[in-house]
Each structure stands twice: as C-alpha cells, then as structure tokens.
Amino acid sequence: MKNIAILVPETAVIEAVADPRYMFTAVNEFIKSQGKPALFNVQLVGLTKEVKLADGIFSIHTDATLKNAKKPDLIIIPAISGNLEHAIKLNKDFLSWIVIQYKNGAEVASLCVGAFILASTGLLNGKNCSTHWLFANEFRSMFPEVDLVDNKIVTDQNGLYTSGGANSYWNLLLHLVEKYTNRELAILASKFFVLDIDRKSQSPFTMFIGQKIHDDDEIKKAQEFIENNFTEKITVDELCSKFAIGRRTFERRFKKATNNTIIEYIQRVKIESAKKQFETGRKTVSEVMYEVGYADTKAFRDVFKKVTGMSPLDYRSKYNKETLHLN
Fold it and tell me: Given this model, what pLDDT does residue 324 score?
C-alpha cells in the first residue's frame, strides 16, 4: 500500500486538492475491478483539521494533521492562490515537514503554482521545475537557484515532480499513476478522465507578457520600444545607439532583466502578435508573417514552432474559430 499525502494548504485551489484525490481513488477502483487489492491510501493532510478556502465559501475536513499523518510515499502539493509570498508564509509549517519526509524516502509533487511552496523548501535548488507560465517571471525572481523550464508540462528529477499551469497537472497525475502502477492503468485513467496522456509542452497555451518585473528602467524603455516597433527591422546595434549603452553591457543587462536575449525578446513579441492574428483573423500565414516583420517563410515557421511547439498552420487550425467551423 502506497501512502499518498495530499496537502491542504491555506489558500489552496480546491480543485487541485480534490482532483488528485479523485485520480488516485479512481485508480484504486480500477485495480479492485481486476480482482486485486487497492494500492493507494490517500490522506488529506493539513495544518489543522479544517481548512477554509475561497474566502470561507468552502471547507475541507482533513484526514490528518502533520502530527498524526501516516509516513507518506508521495506528497502532493496543490496549487495555491492569491499573493504567493503571503501564501508561503501562511504555510511555512509545511516546509520543514516536506523536507524531513523527502529525506526519509518520500517523493514530492507540486501542481501548478504549488511549485512556489516546493521551491521554498530548497529541495528544487539546482533542479528543473515547471509552473504556470503566467507566474514564470515571479518564480524566477523569487527562486533564482531553481532552473525553471516553464514550457514543460511535467518535470521528474530525483523524486521531485512539478507540473505546468492549471489543468496540465492532470498530466503529472497520469505520469505518477504510470510510475506507481503501469502504462495500462495510466491509459485507462486517461480515457476515464478524457485526457491526452502524452502532452509534453504548455508552449501552445503560453501568452508572452513582456518581463517587466525588474528595476532597470532603461531596459524597460528598450522593451517598450521593441513592443511598439516590432514590425520594423530592429537591430541590437540600433538599440544600443538609441539608449547610449555599450553592446556588451546592454546585452548583459537585458538578459539579466528579462531572462531573454534581445533577439529572443524581439522574436517573442513578433510571434505573440502573429498568434493573436491567427486566433481571430482571416489572414493567411504569409500575410501574418509579413505583418509581423518576417520575409523568410522558413525562418518564420522555425521561430514560431520553437516558441509555440506548433507550426503556424497547425496553430491557426487549432485556435481560429472560422477554421474550426471549416473543419
């Protein structure tokens, strides 16, 4: 029997508590239907016996508190909501407990922005981590020693697991089901919950919002210049001249502030504009390509796929309402 401790932090997203419980109890039923004993003992573990969520609208009655929880084989940290620094402070008593359990052999998985709690333990330092793409900049600022790979749906390293944004945590749950049981049961669970079992990237869902959570005002002005003039051919030398900063210094400061090189930033701005046009407009791929400042079809296609994980045509087919009607 594997003991699974699903934590119930203060400010938890209630679905991110209920869904993993549902997943593992459902898998238990699948196993029992095969004439075998249930594999998972699922406990909701909190700091108190009752945790009120969503401004008191919902209450979760936990199965155990940290003092009397069964020794876990797997700890699941659900997504949290609101101000993340405040949420970490509210749940600080979980941190040392998680570390102790990990050192005693437990594995730990965080769902979506539950990664902020896992990262606060220090266990992710020097390791890969994913979280919701919208909070990537904030995460990098708070946890510079963690290697954030925010395009990935799932990371798996040394018994530590993380997932991308929102509903992508279902893919991590399937990953864990397969690890603790087998591929056959993971496929059965994917069909029961109507999930795409092998989705690897959250890039198609990512919206690029220029990284401006920094204090370098000149770099912010450079970002705004790029965002207002991305259809034109902008060179690094032109930006250096405009803002009177030496190239090496400018490139270093830009990368430090935005976590992108200047060229990457220009590309991301162009591709974000292209994505919006594909989602809502009737223009062809070529027309959109020219409008965002590309003249080379292959270069546009390669950059678009690098950023989104999809070709321009596939992206347009997936998200454009009129294209969907045609299909």
Answer: 46
